[in-house]
């Protein structure tokens, strides 16, 4: 027996040793033909004293993807090794990674950087610059280029090419490079999104195998949710240049604007099965761009094409690349730079097998970006003086009295919403626009309001005036004009594409007006305003707190978006907080509806220093907390012990994420909570949603979805949680699964599910309208002693709807024309708590979103379209058209009130079919379910972090929802 056990033990020991040996072996991959790239990226004589990229990275440049840390270490080493490079840290990312740009030139040029920047600033603002001095400046100025790469973190080849370019420029001993540096200052921004690139390179590390992978569908190339394209908060930084939401952008824009570069390139990647695209763009092209922009774009393209032809590389221009939206890096083109986009077929290391069976290697992709860089620099240096002359002529035109911008001013009305007002001004100052305010009230005729109506604009004292006649006229117009014009020929082609196959020429949103995005009221004034103005002066932050002896409460005005964060942060610190559900007047001070109240009576047993916490929180949020000594309201206005002073509940927020969730919408909501509220919240994995204990949360947000939907068992979980008192907030593409009739979760429906009962939705709409009126004919009959023989029913003069089949067919047709991004006017219910802090009319950014229908079972807090009273003469023509028959006017499914029309489009491309389909539909709905509530947003309320009016609606839902919209249990009994 012992002998058997010894033999058995020996066998197991041998097996363990052999298994361990095999476990440590990695098989050598089989050969893959076509993976070797024979061309050298770097060739010529290089200074041996300057470390090579390979010595710093541990691999030849372009063979693998350099991490953000490797990029920073490399350029810092080169700065220490060469007198031809100087680094400038211009920002820190959200994850505290440094962003540098490298200034590359001769030591002589680097020694006079400040003089060069001063000369550039004089050309940029040529007021008072005579021709002789201008010529001297141009003669002595070197060419200036800003070369930027990989703003999308998983579009990696550009940043790797930037390393090759920096090394080539500072280490090459060739005469042509020395000549190039003597005539230019080259600024290289090597990696514009280090947080996204770090996420991407980590995913590469995790998905890399022993064998090269050239299948673009594999995770090595496709990446993992949320992918590396975006920054920490999952924003696309290449849409942020006019929005200025993120520190990476703010630092970058400040730097670019200080340099006024002649050339700006932006190195990207696109679909793996493509080739290589570069500028110029095709239509639509923004009308505010200069003519010389197109001229020089063609010249640069011709020489870049020649460089590619010499290598026998494929490329193209135009096609999908349009240039309407000014918020890309191409914003610099509106400031006078020649802007060139690079788009390289994307892969992650190794390479990708393309449809022609050729492997496009990563090294070749990097080489494409490098050759493009050097070709563009050569063209710039050879044409720099003429480009400066064209630039100066255009800048002189911008400030002249006979340009297209000469007699236009923008007037932005002052508002009690200080956070929003200062945020708008910050963006204007970021771009260096000249700002003024009115010193007294004034008015201007023939002004245009945001609905496109010609009106007399009444401008109170303190109105912000931005005159379009100024050096940055082109960018200013692009950011503030109410509409970006598109040629009829382009619109014809767009409609043809829609009808032919449902595609579009539009690559991005067609509306972005900054006053509308920020939700501030503005006018376009057709004159150069020059009287009763003073230069804009920054206001001091408000005093955090005004204390009074024997005060009973503190109040922060609810007109300011920051008031919501004030309430949220106090709730998180354990204070009891109320909100006033009606306009109020206390201690002779007017307070807006939605004002936040901290009542000492509620906080009698609070153990902290109430006054100190209120003061410090008010300071954090830059709001003023006003002490009051009496709770008695003025006249019939609310008193502090009444029902209008509503008690809030601490929000306990969770956001669903991953899976098919839209990364942009999720990131925008996350960023909004952290930047506006700064309170703790949780992010839940959609994949394990059914296993989470939702009782920990009283507010759950389901962002928009790219694909997929909640399953029936998950909706059942939600149903139980909402009925128990939860606040569910669902957005855009997450809504259809929740409002499907079969799941019986919500009473709200999509338009295409309502045709059988469409008249009931029209009746609810009419009832809403009647409830808002201040005069009723029936009042005169109230005191009659007779029973009424005749009743006016709201549906009596309504034309019956078409049959269900016809309505469905019509909707299928209308739905073909939904926008890629337009701003429409919406009306809000001014008596609903969700509308605190927004105007009766607010701008809403829409695209191909669900069309939501709300009847009497739910509350339509915001509907698309605003009613405007018709001119009397116009109404008489309407009456005459009915020839004494009952007047029955409709927009799509919805009836119009007599003497009123529905205004909808504010900005962007909105086909008539789309406007009819979405007219009077619900943008924001709220309905009770058990002890809880369901809140639905038809489109994303925080688009790119910049739609601030609709973002306020979301903040209200997040912070006030648990207290104002649900039935909560009295605890601690």
Automatic annotation (TrEMBL):
Show the GO MF annotations.
metallocarboxypeptidase activity; zinc ion binding
SUPFAM superfamilies named in the record: Class I glutamine amidotransferase-like, Zn-dependent exopeptidases
Which top-rank group of organisms is this from?
A: Bacteria
Give residue ranges for domain Peptidase M14. 78-241
Q: Which GO terms describe its biological process?
A: proteolysis
Where are its TM segments located? none
One Pfam match: Peptidase_M14
From the Swiss-Prot or TrEMBL record, give the protein name. Peptidase
